[in-house]
Protein 1
Amino acid sequence: TSEPVDPFKQGWLKGVYNEKAVTDVRTRFPPEPNGYLHIGHAKAITVNFGFAKSYGGACNLRFDDTNPTKEEEKYFTSIKEMVHWLGFEPHTITYSSDEFDKLYELAEELTRRGKAYVCHCSPADVKRGRGQLGGGEYGPRSACSHWSRAVDENLSELRGMRDGKYKPGEAVLRMKQYLATKPEEYEVSEEDSPAAKKEKEKLKSLSDNPALWDAAAYRVTKNNHHHRTGDKWRIYPTYEFTHCICDALEGITHSLCTVEFETLRPAYNWLLEELDIKNRGSDEKGPMQREYGRLNVEGTILSKRRIMMLVEGTTVGNEPESNNTAEDAAEDLEELSLAEEGDEEHPSAAHSLPQTQTTTTTNTRRIPPAVAGWDDPRLFTLVALRRRGVPPGALKKFVLDLGVTKANANTMTHSLDASIRTYLERTVPRLMLVLDPIKVVFQNLPDDYLEEREVPFDPKDKTKGTHKVPFTKTIYIDRDDFREEDDADFFRLSPGQSVGLLNAEHPIRCISLHKDAGTGKVDEIIAEYGKDVPAGRARIHWVGESAAHHSPVKAEARIFNPLFKAAKPNELDWKTGGYYDDLNPDSLVVFPNAMIECGFEYIRDNAPWPKEEGEAKGTADKSSVRFQGLRTAFFALDSESTGEKVVLNRIVSLKEDGGK
Ligand code: ATP
Ligand code: MG
Ligand code: MG
């Protein structure tokens, strides 16, 4: 037996550690509390918490709550729950908003140092100054008249912004970065020493980076009531100003983020260097930013805006949704949005995105919701995956098995399902469950016939124990396992034929059948059981009927299939509602009369197998009650279950091709 390999102590992650091999590693997971987390965030959580844990350090949960317009209490709560569910405990829960006083103080300090100015240009003028011609084209850049303002004037204007002198859009505090750098400043000449040449090359690369074209630090927001700080502030700091400073204030050593932030790394360092938090060109002091690839999952929708359309329905046509803001466009581009609403200054919003026109149509179409909520098990939000019964350990394993490198990890929902299947195979007990029961009555057995079958929860692992299953005069089998017409290729039950039963001693043979007079459907099979019945060619699952054993347990079983017919729902028409026509009519299949053997009550109420790290004992976390239905699928208890009603969710099918 070899030691399990720690994925954090090799490859790219090890390299990141070695670049700054400190003993007090400190990381953070910094979500914006403006939506529910999705499977992509499971990677960010696993990477940040896992990295710190592996190197004996700690990870904070930081709510990056600097955009008051979009934040809501329910998101804070859900994010905390999901981190816990994934089995991690934050060292400290922090809020960027707790640092608003210090951040503002540092904005004044930066201004005093001559490294920030208050600008009154319109968004269009700002773009022009930045040389943005649209469509990713650039022309010459130039600083505006506000660039050369005196320090004292900037300070008093910043205070003016703070004190309500300006309305949204009328004033922005901009960092004085490299917008005004002239090509002649980095033009290399013959006389330059090698060191001077290197300096000039560095200057050129900095001044070529749109993230350093005097990005915004503070702006006056439209809705300025903040969830935590109330009406204290009219101005709020941008991501670019806040993130690196909060990292520094929290003592973050390794600030791990996704690759789309790589072009922002020089801006991250610039601000910390200007404030003497970092030394120029060195990661020794202060936090160090490094970037890992995003997790992109095809086959579902992860964009907040689009999930919102699925959850709430939408009206398309002459609607704000179809006004393509930079943010919308960014989400369309594989959801690489760094932009905040109205934040024209953001480099990703302002320079790399296609400029789309607002289309005005007179026809509107109301599109109804497609799912029941953010935790609808057909979605890939973390609340939905949890509700479906996916074990958190399976998600973490999936993320790490894909590998953490600089490259984006592109995968598909069915690869995730395969990984969950493999994980469950080894971890959950097995039970017999019948989705669509037909009654089978053995005419050769007495009414009170009872065989108590001792059945292991996991035939491959005796330590998981056994339980008793009643075999009785009446049992139930799955409708799929019976055919009225026999067929040479059909190995299960049909008139005159016999079949074996899992966990029972003898086979059974169908003698005759009874049909419901109304529906014409077979509602009872008359059969015989015993050692004289010829052996069948297959073995099927069943559930016995015994009040004393509480068998069967009645349940509603919900089977989930892909929400869309298209393999790449991101490519559907989300603007005019075409996505709605691609919905898979079979994405939810309900079996209202399913039956489970009595072993279910035992696993539900006693749950002897280890729960996942973040899961509560017993049924406090209903979705932690999981089992493999023999020959059917993996199931978990749904959150809607009560003491009286059992609702089951299919976690995944047993085989890749789906089946039930
Ligand atoms: P959304 O995809 O919903 O727009 P976001 O990027 O706005 O998500 P944040 O709350 O800002 O979400 O993200 C918190 C952290 O999670 C960030 O560090 C972000 O880089 C990371 N993250 C977001 N999406 C992914 C993903 N698909 N893969 C890996 N990390 C991600
Ligand atoms: Mg995003
Ligand atoms: Mg974001």
Protein 2
Amino acid sequence: GRCVVAVDGPSGSGKSTVSRRLADALGARYLDTGAMYRAVTWAVLRSGVDLDNAESVTKVAGEVDLKIGVDPAAPSVTADGIAVDRDIRGPEVTAAVSAVSAVPAVREILVALQRQIIEAAGRIVVEGRDIGSVVAPDADLKVYLTASAEARAQRRSTENAADLAATAADLARRDRLDSTRAADPLRQAPDAVVLDTTELGIDEVVSRLRELLTG
Ligand code: C5P
């Protein structure tokens, strides 16, 4: 039957790995909403419009043809037919994504698309920042993953083979931008189960979530 799991939390909290593994274990689909904000940001950068012009940024978000693959074994994103999986993780997109995702009209467009994907999938694990609070407030299970700033920077710099100090500074900057935006702050759902993954292994987190689902 239908089963929607919302996994929210900051970058480096283990969201992506946990969400994909959980989806695989449940025989469910997997949706990475961060990849959608990143793909729109890629399209905005390609179009050359001014990042500070909310109207132009919204126009790009409304016109770009996004296709999101929801297989947890092989997630994929295309924008206007171009595979952007690699580019959306690069430094240019990462530097600009907080500004693009702060535009309320961009969020409206992507939230509507996310709800369609969830509806069509039925069984799905959705990761992001506002899934339990905004996108799927009726989710069967809401999880909020956290980890210490040090652990998050360590994981991200290992994943991206990037400098630890630079990664820590970038995470701190994005945390600040993502949590102080004026419109639609990315809040933690009050009924989310909070798990600190600093000391927990992936297997342990996934099995705790499965226990929570089966009751
Ligand atoms: O999860 P990830 O680090 O790929 O997300 C990239 C950015 O997209 C975040 O820093 C945040 O600005 C934005 N985002 C968002 N809402 C979501 C998912 C991501 O605003 N549901």
